[in-house]
Automatic annotation (TrEMBL):
GO terms for molecular function: metal ion binding; tRNA (guanine(26)-N2)-dimethyltransferase activity; tRNA binding. It catalyses: guanosine(26) in tRNA + 2 S-adenosyl-L-methionine = N(2)-dimethylguanosine(26) in tRNA + 2 S-adenosyl-L-homocysteine + 2 H(+). Residues 60-75, 574-594 have a biased composition (Basic and acidic residues). GO terms for cellular component: nucleus. It comes from Panicum hallii var. hallii. Belongs to the class I-like SAM-binding methyltransferase superfamily. Trm1 family. The lineage of its organism: Eukaryota, Viridiplantae, Streptophyta, Embryophyta, Tracheophyta. Dimethylates a single guanine residue at position 26 of most tRNAs using S-adenosyl-L-methionine as donor of the methyl groups. This is tRNA (guanine(26)-N(2))-dimethyltransferase. Keywords: Metal-binding, Methyltransferase, RNA-binding, S-adenosyl-L-methionine, Transferase, tRNA processing, tRNA-binding, Zinc. PROSITE patterns: SAM_MT_TRM1.
Length: 602
């Protein structure tokens, strides 16, 4: 027993959900405990997908059964008509009795065969869904899928790094027979593997350290028809507009800067996935798209239809962002022309804005294209939330994912992007109205309004910008402000008289259902330095204090000093394998790769 404990001293046992992993205390294989939110959300959506898949299969079988019965009734009516006409034949045209008996025997044989395996019942049996985790690292995500999601078939875990796959295989054995029978790990380049296994996986999960852009082309080909693609992007500086030219090179879209930048990141990622899918006559249907912690995560279903991809330009838009005020406008890429019973596709008519902003007189920045269609399927969101609440004890991050799903369920799904109430108040240099008062004014004007899961101060609305600014003009009339510079955007906005009579009285729907029930929708981080961690294989130094915190840095550095030899050099010895789960393959050091996208995250 002491010998086993001695072998395990270099490892830390980490339990998350119903899975356990052995993690080296040194930074050899990447693991980030913060991603428990990501993994819990993925499990919740995956459970909803398994149930939805069964419902769709049953509906398809019932439809085929109904179609067969209708065909059978029509054949019977036709046959009765033929019998009536045959009875009027001349009595001299008599068929020998022997031939009649032989024909009847053949018909009975055919009917017996049809009863055994009728063609309308030859429906492909619904097999358990097969899951691919393209970037497995420690394998924790794959193990949680296999242990916690009922009805799953095989789970394939890939990683290009041999050390990661050895760690993954060790963890599979550590979790017992149930994990061993479901999860298999392979050393492979995820891009090549997905390209050589087209449409073989019902679920493909991509969660890289950085940008997923290099994996998207092969991922959309590996997903089966109607399958689920789950994708994470952590390169938020790129997607949110800090490095716009890099975003265009990776995702084919140019971001604009605004408070909506994190939702715009979601829409840029969706547009990029759709673009890759269209090249293979495929298209996506988003079921859930969320911004959490320091990354964006999208869940989309992938279908094949050459005719449906013609509608892609209707789902994409360019964005015009005013450089003076907070107003933005979307320009759709395409339009449809209906004539008689035919529908033709044509370029959109634009631009939707003049050369200068009609509110403040400033210029516009142009960005995009971004996904401007809904980014959630509200039925999926509601069913996923209900499933999470029914299995509260099985989600370590229950509070976080329920708060996100609750807020998502109340969003306006057909109002792309959002604005910040504090920002528009800052533009006109006035005290901000309360959110309830502002929502009431919009609702009383006959428009819809909601919050957003991305920002607690964010507001989504289908009200045009002239209505929004009229509300602020009326608010400033009741709450006077100091005189502002004549060339400021706020002065230009307030110089115009409001055309709308604004009613600030409390509206019934000014508070959402969650707010009325006092459901927590935006939770603080559970601990300090809750964010991205150091890439696996990199030496941890004092410069990583912002990621890990001073206490963690000091403990790591002090531990390294205590292990140094007399010459001041740390011993280069691999950690021993724990007894009883040693893998047959020899231990190798982590291979360093130059491509950031191939570094893996569980």
């Amino acid at each position: 027993m002491a010998e086993v404990e001695d072998k395990l001293k270099d490892y830390e046992i980490i339990r998350e959900g119903e899975a356990e992993i052995l993690q080296l205390k040194k930074n050899a294989v990447f693991f980030n405990p913060v991603q428990v939110h990501n993994r819990d959300m993925s499990i919740a959506v995956l459970r909803a997908f398994v149930g939805k898949r069964k419902e769709e299969h049953e509906a398809l079988v019932n439809k085929r059964n109904k179609l067969h019965q209708e065909n059978k009734r029509s054949e019977t009516s036709v046959q009765n008509g033929e019998d009536a006409s045959t009875s009027q034949l001349d009595e001299m045209d008599v068929v020998p009795e022997k031939d009649i008996n032989q024909a009847q025997d053949e018909i009975e044989d055919l009917s017996t065969e049809a009863t055994k395996t009728p063609s309308w019942k030859v429906t492909r049996e619904l097999k358990p869904p097969v899951v691919l985790e393209a970037l497995a690292a420690s394998g924790l995500r794959s193990l949680r899928y296999a242990c916690e999601v009922d009805g799953l078939g095989k789970v394939v875990a890939l990683d290009i790094d041999k050390a990661s796959i050895e760690c993954c295989k060790r963890n599979i054995k550590f979790n017992g027979a149930s994990a061993t029978s479901k999860v298999e790990a392979h050393v492979a380049d995820a891009r090549v593997y997905m390209l050589t296994h087209p449409k073989e996986f019902d679920v493909v999960d991509i969660d890289p350290y950085g940008s997923p852009s290099v994996f998207l082309d092969s991922a959309v080909q590996a997903v089966a028809d109607g399958g689920l693609l789950m994708c994470t992007a952590t390169d938020m500086a790129v997607l949110c507009g800090t490095n716009g030219e890099v975003c265009y090179s990776k995702y084919g879209s140019y971001p604009t800067k605004g408070k909506y930048c994190h939702e715009m990141a979601l829409r840029i990622l969706l547009a990029s996935i759709e673009s890759h899918a269209n090249r293979y006559k495929r298209y996506i249907v988003p079921v859930l798209s969320v911004f959490m912690d320091f990354y964006v995560r999208v869940f989309v279903r992938v279908f094949t239809s050459a005719s449906e991809i013609k509608n892609t330009p209707l789902k994409l838009s360019y964005i015009y962002q005013c450089v003076g005020c907070d107003s933005f406008h979307l320009q759709c890429l395409g339009r449809t022309i209906s004539k008689n019973s035919t529908v033709k596709h044509a370029p959109a008519i634009g631009p939707v804005v003049p050369q200068e902003c009609s509110d403040c007189g400033k210029k516009f920045n142009v960005g995009g294209p971004i996904w401007s269609a809904p980014i959630h399927d509200q039925d999926w969101v509601v069913s996923t939330l209900a499933g999470v609440k029914s299995m509260k004890d099985r989600y370590p991050a229950y509070d976080k994912i329920t708060s996100v799903l609750t807020t998502v369920s109340e969003e306006l799904h057909d109002a792309p992007l959002f604005f910040s109430l504090h920002n528009i108040a800052g533009t006109v240099k006035c005290m901000s109205p309360s959110l309830v008062m502002f929502r009431s004014a919009v609702l009383n004007a006959g428009y819809r309004i909601s919050s957003t899961h991305v920002n607690p101060l964010g507001v989504k609305s289908d009200a045009p910008w002239d209505v929004i600014w009229d509300i602020m003009r009326c608010w400033v009339k009741n709450h006077p402000i100091k005189e502002q510079p004549h060339d400021s955007p706020g002065t230009a906005i307030l110089s115009k008289s409001p055309t709308l009579e604004v009613d600030f009285s409390r509206a019934v729907a000014a508070l959402s259902k969650a707010q009325m029930k006092k459901v927590k929708r935006f939770l603080p981080n559970p601990e300090r330095h809750w964010g991205p961690k150091v890439r696996a294989g990199r030496k941890i130094t004092s410069k990583h204090v912002s990621l890990l915190g001073p206490e963690a840095i000091n403990s790591i550095l002090n531990g390294a000093v205590s292990h140094e030899d007399g010459n001041g050099a740390a011993p280069d010895k691999p950690a021993p394998e724990p007894e009883g789960i040693k893998d047959d393959e020899p231990s190798t050091k982590r291979q360093k790769t130059g491509d950031d996208e191939e570094a893996n995250e569980p």
